[in-house]
């Protein structure tokens, strides 16, 4: 073999070289006789065999397998001429490296000295054959990205693939990896049924469709809404009972024009309507008509409410926003609109400043055909309650114990509008929470009721009821919709009528008696004297006080007059007490200081009228606003002014009690004395009893009077009134009817009237009082009382 011959030759050369050159093994001499390394790899032919490299080292050399080859030994390196051959390694089956050498989606292919990965569809190793396969991101991939899903699709990469998410109105039905394209809703067999209603023609556009309606029908400028019939006659001015409402006529004509243009196919195309602007115009136009004092008839109110409801129903579907809120000085409205092919569900909460509405979309949209939109609106009128503060005649059921209450509107008036055409019987009641105009809790005298404005122009309540009421709010639940408010049913205090009657009759009797007393005390000559003067002025004070009480105690308006009434009442009732004190003083003097029992009239007047005047003036200066309250024209109970009445009264009563006790004691002594002047003593006794009775009644009356103006219960009012009436009667009976002198004069007077023949005589004796009075009284003082 050639190989063995080579080996033999090599050995020969080596031996020769050694002998000749003397260099180390693996080295040889060059031209300059120096020993240099021999490159055995170049000198020898194929020292390592196929698929391997020969590597020269200093003085030696070795073999190494190429990458991807192996020779079966422990390492890649091996001895030349060892007989070993490097052979291809199968990377694909190599148990050490095999795991995921090409990834999960690649198949390993072994080749001589190497391998490559074959990737599944949707995976790549980007041309580098020996790397694992990974997902291709088709969406990010620059080259493919252009319109891979079309203009209306969004690419979504997934492992090994991608898909396109289409916008509404576009589809790639069947193959998710194809570009999105317009859906032709009009041709689409499944949806085609009445997509535009019976009076509409479907028009496909890129990504959507719209309905072209016949004359008289409209989609309110919306896409995807059925062609609905539009009745512009509800904005017609004909046949309206109150055409006097100028502002309403303008609104009606504006809304009618808008309605007509909506129902005209050439002007009502999609995108042309501007509901927001129209709504703004509507509420600006209603400002004037709603300003206070403009609406004065219930017909006018009904028409206005009706027009506003129809207008909102017309404008609502034209609005672009889901929620619209407009506030003007007279109104506050919130409108919620839902559009789309799917019937909306879920709760609705609408809120204006003093009212809120809770319902749901199912109620607002109704159960009938869904036209492609639904709306709910809450409209608060800020001043309408003044114009609607009447027409309560339908509320008979709120009678209580036969008493018919009086009603007030006690919240703002609100209108609830929904697109549901049948609002007369909702399948779920709506909740309306209304803020009261005044914070007030319900009581036996007052109830809150939820009422709606019946189209006949009266407040009604059937189908509406209050769920819950506190001082500030009432929650109303209603089964139908229109305009609502919370009313206040005021039940007059029980027996008020009776009390009024008793007061009137009692005070009238009292006034009559006092009148008689005054006349008697003035003209009856035989009883003139200090005591009669006192009685006279006590009666005058009581008479005027009662008269003012009867006429003015509850005339609280105007304020000035009420204050005057309170001042006069204070003065005259005070006067009654000061004169009563004088009576006590006089009795005391008559019994204890028998000798000088007369008092000069001037002193009497100064005390009897001066003291009350001083008290009133001082009170008026200290508390000028304390006279006249909201309920009564009397002294205010709040700021202590009432004590300028009760303080002096208490003092007077205490003093009088003292005088009376002393008087009674002295009287008793005199009765038991040795020779009592019985007739005079009996007279004084009668006077004393009268005075005590009078004081008791007057004192007691004002004890009740203290409660009367405070919490005004019926019993107190009755007692007060009856005691008050008793005063006059008591004075009349005790001082006039029971007095023999007076009786005689009465008899004489009556006989004069009945028998005119004796008139001449009477002229001399009793009548002609104006000339004889001062004389009489003076003589009375001398004759009558100084004797006692
Ligand atoms: C080495 O390779 C050559 C050419 O590829 C071939 O002809 C020869 O047989 C191979 N030698 C061995 C020992 O395989
Ligand atoms: C879906 O479309 C893509 C891209 O046009 C195509 O490669 C693929 O084969 C299609 N698949 C089916 C299931 O038709
Ligand atoms: C209106 O409501 C729809 C449905 O609830 C919602 O998808 C949309 O984003 C809303 N639009 C606005 C402007 O709030
Ligand atoms: C109305 O209020 C009542 C009682 O508070 C409640 O049970 C009902 O669910 C409410 N209805 C709506 C529509 O909110
Ligand atoms: C309604 O009228 C009554 C008297 O008739 C009045 O007291 C009340 O304040 C009025 N209410 C409104 C809201 O105008
Ligand atoms: C709401 O009611 C309260 C109390 O009646 C009132 O003070 C307030 O001004 C009202 N707000 C509006 C916007 O009407
Ligand atoms: C209005 O009142 C009348 C009579 O009270 C009644 O018959 C009618 O149903 C009411 N209208 C509404 C809408 O409730
Ligand atoms: C009264 O009721 C309303 C609504 O139900 C609530 O918001 C308010 O806090 C209540 N007021 C009081 C004083 O309880």
UniProtKB/TrEMBL annotation:
Chain segments carrying region Disordered: 763-788
Signal peptide: 1-21
Subcellular location: Cell membrane
SUPFAM superfamilies for this protein: EGF/Laminin (SSF57196), Family A G protein-coupled receptor-like (SSF81321), Growth factor receptor domain (SSF57184)
InterPro entries for this protein: EGF (IPR000742), EGF-like_Ca-bd_dom (IPR001881), EGF-type_Asp/Asn_hydroxyl_site (IPR000152), EGF_Ca-bd_CS (IPR018097), GAIN_B (IPR057244), GAIN_dom_sf (IPR046338), GPCR_2-like_7TM (IPR017981), GPCR_2_EMR1-like_rcpt (IPR001740)
Transmembrane segments: 497-522, 534-552, 564-582, 602-622, 642-665, 686-709, 715-738
Keywords attached to this entry: Cell membrane, Disulfide bond, EGF-like domain, G-protein coupled receptor, Glycoprotein, Membrane, Receptor, Repeat, Signal, Transducer, Transmembrane, Transmembrane helix
One GO BP annotation of this record: adenylate cyclase-activating G protein-coupled receptor signaling pathway
Domain annotation GAIN-B: ranges: 332-494
UniProt xrefs under Gene3D superfamilies: 2.60.220.50, Laminin, Rhodopsin 7-helix transmembrane proteins
Domain G-protein coupled receptors family 2 profile: 499-739
Residue stretches making up the EGF-like domain: 37-75, 88-131, 135-176, 182-228
GO molecular function: calcium ion binding; G protein-coupled receptor activity
Record-level GO cellular component terms: plasma membrane
Topology class, membrane: Multi-pass membrane protein
Protein name per the record: CD97 antigen-like
């Amino acid at each position: 073999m050639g190989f063995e011959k080579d080996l033999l030759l090599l050995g020969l050369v080596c031996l020769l070289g050694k002998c000749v050159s003397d260099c180390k093994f693996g080295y040889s001499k060059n031209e300059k006789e120096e020993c240099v390394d021999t490159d055995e790899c170049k000198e020898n032919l194929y020292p390592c065999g196929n698929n391997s490299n020969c590597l020269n080292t200093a003085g030696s050399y070795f073999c190494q397998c190429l990458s991807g080859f192996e020779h079966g030994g422990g390492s890649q390196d091996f001895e030349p001429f060892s007989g070993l051959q490097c052979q291809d390694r199968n990377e694909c089956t190599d148990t050490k490296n095999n795991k995921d050498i090409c990834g999960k989606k690649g198949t390993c292919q072994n080749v001589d000295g190497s391998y490559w990965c074959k990737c599944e569809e949707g995976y790549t190793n980007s041309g580098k054959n020996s790397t694992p396969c990974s997902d291709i991101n088709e969406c990010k991939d620059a080259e493919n990205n252009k319109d891979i899903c079309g203009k209306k699709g969004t690419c979504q990469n997934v492992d090994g693939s991608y898909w396109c998410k289409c916008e509404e109105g576009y589809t790639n039905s069947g193959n998710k990896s194809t570009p999105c394209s317009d859906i032709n809703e009009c041709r689409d067999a499944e949806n085609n049924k009445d997509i535009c209603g019976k009076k509409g023609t479907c028009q496909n556009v890129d990504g959507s469709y719209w309905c072209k309606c016949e004359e008289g029908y409209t989609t309110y400028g919306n896409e995807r809404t059925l062609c609905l019939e539009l009745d512009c006659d509800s904005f017609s001015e004909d046949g309206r009972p109150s055409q006097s409402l100028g502002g309403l006529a303008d609104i009606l004509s504006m809304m009618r024009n808008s309605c007509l243009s909506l129902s005209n196919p050439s002007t009502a195309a999609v995108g042309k309507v501007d509901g927001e602007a129209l709504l703004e115009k509507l509420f600006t136009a209603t400002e004037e008509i709603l300003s206070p004092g403009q609406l004065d008839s219930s017909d006018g109110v009904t028409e206005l409410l009706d027009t506003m409801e129809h207008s909102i129903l017309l404008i609502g579907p034209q609005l672009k926003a889901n929620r619209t809120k407009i506030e003007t000085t007279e109104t506050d409205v919130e409108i919620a609109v839902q559009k789309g092919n799917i019937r909306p569900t879920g709760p609705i909460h609408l809120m204006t400043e003093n009212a809120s509405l809770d319902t749901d979309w199912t109620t607002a949209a109704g159960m009938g055909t869904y036209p492609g939109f639904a709306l709910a609106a809450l409209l608060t009128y800020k001043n309408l309650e003044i114009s609607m503060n009447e027409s309560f005649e339908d509320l008979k059921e709120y009678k209580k114990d036969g008493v018919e209450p009086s009603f007030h509107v006690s919240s703002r008036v609100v209108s609830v509008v929904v697109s549901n055409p049948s609002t007369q019987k909702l399948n779920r009641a709506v909740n309306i929470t209304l803020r009261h105009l005044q914070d007030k809790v319900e009581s036996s005298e007052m109830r809150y009721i939820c009422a709606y404005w019946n189209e006949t122009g009266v407040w009604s309540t059937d189908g509406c009821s209050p769920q819950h009421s506190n001082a500030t709010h009432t929650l109303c639940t209603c089964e139908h919709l229109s305009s609502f408010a919370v009313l206040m049913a005021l039940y007059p205090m029980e027996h008020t009528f009776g009390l009024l009657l008793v007061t009137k009759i009692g005070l009238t009797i009292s006034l009559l008696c006092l009148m008689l007393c005054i006349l008697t005390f003035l003209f009856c000559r035989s009883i003139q004297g200090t005591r009669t003067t006192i009685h006279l002025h006590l009666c005058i004070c009581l008479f005027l006080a009662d008269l003012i009480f009867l006429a003015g105690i509850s005339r609280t308006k105007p304020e000035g007059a009420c204050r005057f009434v309170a001042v006069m009442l204070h003065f005259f009732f005070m006067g009654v007490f000061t004169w009563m004190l004088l009576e006590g003083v006089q009795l005391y003097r008559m019994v204890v200081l028998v000798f000088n029992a007369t008092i000069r009239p001037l002193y009497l007047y100064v005390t009897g009228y001066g003291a009350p005047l001083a008290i009133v003036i001082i009170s008026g200066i200290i508390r000028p606003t304390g006279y006249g309250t909201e309920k009564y024209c009397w002294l205010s109970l709040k700021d202590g002014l009432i004590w300028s009445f009760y303080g002096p009264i208490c003092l007077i009563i205490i003093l009088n009690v003292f005088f009376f006790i002393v008087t009674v004691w002295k009287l008793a002594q005199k009765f038991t004395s040795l020779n009592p002047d019985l007739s005079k003593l009996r007279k004084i006794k009668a006077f004393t009893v009268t005075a005590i009775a009078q004081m008791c009644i007057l004192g007691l009356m004002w004890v009740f009077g203290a409660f009367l103006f405070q919490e005004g219960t019926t019993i107190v009012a009755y007692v007060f009134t009856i005691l008050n009436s008793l005063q006059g009667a008591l004075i009349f009976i005790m001082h006039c009817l029971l007095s023999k002198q007076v009786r005689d004069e009465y008899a004489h007077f009556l006989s004069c009237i009945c028998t005119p023949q004796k008139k001449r005589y009477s002229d001399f004796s009793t009548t002609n009082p104006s000339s004889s009075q001062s004389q009489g009284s003076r003589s009375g003082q001398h004759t009558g009382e100084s004797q006692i």
